[in-house]
Design goal:
By secondary structure, the protein is mostly beta strands. The chain folds into two domains: 197 residues, Jelly Rolls (Sandwich), CATH 2.60.120.560; 292 residues, Single-stranded right-handed beta-helix, Pectin lyase-like (Pectate Lyase C-like). 4% of the residues lie in helices and 43% in strands. It contains three helices and 45 strands. The strands form six sheets. The chain has an eleven-stranded mixed sheet with strand order 1-19-20-23-26-29-32-35-38-41-44, with helices on one face. A nine-stranded parallel sheet has the order 21-24-27-30-33-36-39-42-45, with helices on one face. Strands 2, 4, 5, 7, 12, 13, 14 and 16 form an eight-stranded antiparallel sheet that branches.
């Protein structure tokens, strides 16, 4: 079971009773429920469909024997939120290869829950079942089949879902449909035996568990302070402080990281080593600092999503994700975006990271997000670098928003989207070093307004343009350096001045190349 290591916090240890029947969820961390069926009955379980009974299958077990029904047995209380449900499961017969047996968490009813199931076709699936209809969130091939006992565990922490088979995490996803609910045993047109059911939570309340070895002193704290739009007092947030004021946790596994970023409240998350995430985007909640420890910390395989699920609302919601810092991490091999900011998320600072070799964008900001600073990052070995505003037709969400500052970044042979801007105003691009961007540097279009100043462009064919593709934008280019085979800026129109929102000081543009190459990216 995942154990996050909490650092520099007072610890309160409270024990809980392990019961052999349904109990009310306690207000503290610990076991919630267990049933081994050794008492010969299944009291406390409510059944829906199928034919359930306690039998002897090596030891007493709870069996569903019909292959002609969608059968569920539920236990627990609907107030349970963050926990792990586990059980030994032995599939006996599947009605077809797409039929399933498994366990469920956060069951609101017999037709609404999250499930970890084994299929007759030899897969483990993480599912969201709503209205009786299953949506597969993640899947993985697993060995075994009928007649073999497997231990299944499903962990739900915030919007992070993790499914394990025989102690190994095999499927992960993020989903916020169900916040709480009971547990269930599932046999959809299949027969199976279930034993050793347990529900446990290690969510610390009122204090975290005993700390383990922290990172070296000084290596896990946010370095410096943001400049630009992340400092502005707006939308109920004064500046960007991330997890300041909250506890600090150390993580070095995917399960630990996903649990930490889904935790409510301020938290500083110290990432050690390279963490491999399964393919997908993983939600970061408000008030988080995600900080790499040393020069080797990073994330590969998956990406970080800062924002609510996509919708067509045009007014920032009160629960928009906000106050997030991502610093000193290397991102490689993301299956989608490396970092995505969306749905009116605000006060985000993305600083001193090294990003390359992703699938889509390295840093994309869209759908009305605002008050973001992207600073001191080194991006390379990637084509579609940074997008600001995802679509020419999204003016309803984006107009008057997408206020973003890009400064002291090293756009290192990234052909396009450095950034590509739609609708945002003002977008402030200053003191960045552009090297060999073969398509465009800054592309400002679709009614956007960009101020591009004090940058160093080296061998950039089209450094700044407001006529790149699609509807035109507006841009002001001033005090930039163009060397090598760089072209001239193609700019027109007037733009709001960033200085109406915040004060800033430009470095000498002639010195920007040396300053940025010496300081951008991760540090030791």
């Amino acid at each position: 079971m995942t154990r996050i290591r909490w650092i520099s916090i007072a610890t309160t240890v409270v024990s809980a009773l392990v019961l052999s029947a349904v109990v009310t969820a306690p207000a503290y961390a610990g076991p919630l429920f267990s049933d081994t069926f050794d008492d010969g009955n299944a009291n406390g379980w409510s059944r829906s469909g199928g034919s359930w009974s306690v039998v002897t299958d090596g030891s007493p077990a709870f069996r569903q024997s019909s292959t002609g029904a969608n059968a569920r047995a539920l236990a627990g209380t609907t107030s349970w939120t963050d926990y792990t449900v586990s059980a030994r499961v032995r599939p006996i017969a599947f009605g077809a290869t797409n039929r399933t047996v498994g366990i469920a968490a956060r069951a609101r009813s017999s037709s609404e829950y999250y499930a970890l199931v084994l299929t007759g076709g030899g897969a483990a699936q993480l599912q969201r079942v709503a209205g009786g209809s299953a949506t597969v969130l993640a899947t993985a091939a697993v060995a075994g089949g009928t007649g073999t006992w497997r231990t299944l565990s499903l962990t739900v922490r915030g919007s992070a879902l993790t499914g394990s088979v025989d102690g190994a995490a095999v499927v992960r996803a993020t989903d916020a449909t169900f916040a709480s609910g009971r547990i269930a045993l599932l046999a959809s047109y299949a027969s199976a035996s279930f034993d050793d059911v347990a529900v446990d939570t290690e969510t610390p309340d009122p204090g975290p568990t005993t700390p383990t070895t922290p990172p070296p002193p000084g290596q896990c704290r946010v370095a410096g302070a943001p400049a630009g739009f992340a400092t502005v007092n707006a939308w109920g947030q004064n500046g960007t402080t991330g997890g300041a004021g909250g506890p600090t946790v150390a993580v070095d596994t995917a399960a630990e990281l996903l649990t930490a970023i889904a935790t409510s409240g301020p938290l500083t998350i110290c990432v050690s080593g390279t963490i491999t995430l399964p393919a997908g985007m993983y939600d970061v909640t408000s008030d988080k600092s995600i900080v790499g420890v040393g020069a080797t910390a990073g994330i590969t395989g998956g990406g970080l999503n800062i924002g609510l699920p996509v919708s067509e609302v045009t007014t920032p919601p009160a629960d928009a994700v906000h106050n997030v810092i991502i610093q000193n991490l290397s991102f490689r091999g993301a299956s989608d975006d490396s970092i995505n900011v969306q749905m009116f998320s605000h006060h985000v600072w993305i600083d001193h990271n090294d990003l390359a070799d992703g699938y889509d964008g390295l840093i994309d900001i869209k759908r009305g997000s605002s008050y973001v600073t992207v600073s001191w990052n080194h991006t390379h070995d990637h084509t579609k670098n940074m997008l600001l505003g995802h679509d020419d037709g999204n003016g309803a969400q984006d107009t008057g928003r997408l206020k973003v500052t890009y400064h002291h970044n090293w756009f290192d042979a990234t052909p396009q989207r450095n950034p590509r801007v739609r609708y945002g105003e003002p977008v402030h691009v200053y003191n960045n070093y552009y090297f060999y961007n073969t398509d465009t540097g800054v592309a400002c279009q679709a009614s956007a307004g960009c101020v591009v100043e004090g940058n160093y462009f080296e061998n950039v064919e089209e450094p700044v343009t407001n006529t790149y593709a699609g509807p035109a934008g507006r841009c002001v280019a001033r005090s930039n350096v163009f060397v090598g085979e760089s072209g001239a800026p193609d700019c027109s129109g007037t733009v709001q001045e960033p200085s109406t929102y915040y004060s800033y000081t430009l470095d000498d543009p002639a010195s920007v190349k040396a300053i940025v190459t010496a300081g951008a990216g991760v540090s030791s």
